[in-house]
Amino acid sequence: MKLLVLFGLLPVVFCAGGLMGGKSNIPNPEKNVEIMAATNFALEKLNGLLDSDAKMTNVKIVSAQTQVVSGVNYFLTIRVQYGADVKECNVVVYVQSWTNTNKMTSQNCIDLKASKRSLLGGIVPVDMDADTKKAISFGIENFNQRSNSMFRSQPLKISNVSKQLVAGNLYRFDADMQETQCRKSQDNINKGFADCPPNVKGLRNVCKFTVLQQAWKTPEWTLTDFKCNQGGLLGGDGHDLCHLDHFTKFKTDFNKNYETTQEEKKRFKVFCDNMEIARRIQDVEKGTAKYGPTIFADMTAEEFGLRLNPKPWNLNIRPDNMLDADIPQGQMPTSFDWRDHGAVTAVKNQGSCGSCWAFSTTGNIEGQWAIKKKTLLSLSEQELVDCDKVDQGCNGGLPSQAYEAIMKLGGLETEKEYGYKGYNEKTCFFNKTEVAAKISGSVKISQNEDEIAAWLAKNGPISIGINAFAMQFYMGGISHPWKIFCNPTKLDHGVLIVGYGVEGSEPYWIIKNSWGPNWGEKGYYRVYRGAGVCGLNTMCTSAVVN
Ligand SMILES: *[C@@H]1O[C@H](CO)[C@@H](O)[C@H](O)[C@H]1NC(C)=O
Ligand SMILES: *[C@@H]1O[C@H](CO)[C@@H](O)[C@H](O)[C@H]1NC(C)=O
Description:
The chain has ten helices and 21 strands. By secondary structure, it is of the alpha+beta class. It folds into three domains: 2-120, Nuclear Transport Factor 2, Chain: A; 124-231, Nuclear Transport Factor 2, Chain: A (Roll), CATH 3.10.450.10; 302-544, Alpha-Beta Complex (Cathepsin B, Chain A). The strands form five sheets. Strands 13, 15, 17, 18, 19 and 20 form a six-stranded mixed sheet that branches. A hairpin with a 2-residue loop joins strand 3 (71-82) and strand 4 (85-96). Helix 7 packs across helix 9 (399-409). The longest helix has 23 residues, at 261-283. The chain is globular, with a radius of gyration of 27 Å. 39% of the residues are buried. Residues 1-19, 114-125 and 231-239 have low confidence and may be disordered. Bound molecules: 2-acetamido-2-deoxy-beta-D-glucopyranose (2 copies). The site of one 2-acetamido-2-deoxy-beta-D-glucopyranose (NAG) has 3 residues, from loops.
């Protein structure tokens, strides 16, 4: 207990309530200011883990305990409404007021059954009492002990919880288990996804658990049965997609030729591994997108990664003179597409070079130029790769910095004059007399997606950053991955929003990519609009053309 070393420093008030390290129940927790503060903090953290289109509401504190360590642990059981579901969450919030530390150190939420009614002689859907919760965590921990994996799995969802009285209490529940990035160790027991993020390449199992509690026996709890359907109920085995016929079709579709049989074998293996990943991304898809054998299906993560920004962007970089864009007021159109208004050039291909930022920048300026000057020009990315010395060519860059560089250089040449090579050239071949388009500044656009849409419809396509998590195997549809898999603060790809619309009840953005017309929807990516999916709303900028 090295935490106790700080005992001497503790303000006396912390020690008044009980023994150091012991837990004290807080009566009337909803009337206790500290508990309410800890609860609100936990709720904020929990909501941060959910997709932002729904929030937990109607919070009720079921119980609260405090424990004085070197600081205070708040053990909270709270019940919340989440959409049509009622969830019960056990959270631990750790507060060390003298160092301004507030942390949610553990969280575990389960769906409660709406009804407690028993069918005659049947199985009772249970309200989540303490024993049921114990049965579930017992099942999960035993599953982790017994599985062969080195990594800890955690339930994405618990459902169908029931309790039956047969020679003890027999608990049954279904758990959608997802492997995390944490190794199995004593330290990681009972950790939530906040501390152990899911690994999308990790195992996914839908398991049925049966746990027996016999209070008079030692041990009291036994995991009597668990059956897992690896890969979830949603799709079959990923190897369905890696059949040789599929690989042959893939090769024909994308005109792939491998030089040696050995290379061919290696690519088939990569293809199979990738189809397994695609299937898992499909499992955590909330929209209508399909993932499968795209043109990149035979590339390893490293090879594919060459077309992304090598490091996630530092979102704090913002040139001093970048102004906030004016957001148009009033009604915006329900859909808009700049491709129908002559402001978007054909889809380009960056190749194996991390120059996405340059394509995002030229795409925006092409749009601004077309709208202001009534001429659609295809502008040079290679000029930026070679001559923008603040950015790093094929090793990454930022559109906001590229606007600055273009102003310093004096403008952009056309694609025709300064063609794309897809590698860092030693020299900058910029020739000022060949400048075709000039800009006079740049603006940062809102993070609110309605305001982004309003600005876009009035002013033109927008340069954005996005987390490319779901893109390698995107075949089409409206992409909407779970937030825990597609971290909105890790932007690694620069693209261009050219429009938006609604399909059925799904609002979406139309995003121009730079991976050629044979990827996605003829080179385009549609993404769910209104939930900050993959951080697409966090780095929206445009050049200004006068
Ligand atoms: C829960 O039970 C329902 C009804 O029996 C079933 O359709 C569903 O697949 C079960 N859930 C899981 C995750 O097994
Ligand atoms: C710059 O471009 C102009 C017009 O195309 C051309 O006449 C001139 O020779 C070029 N200068 C250099 C240094 O290439």
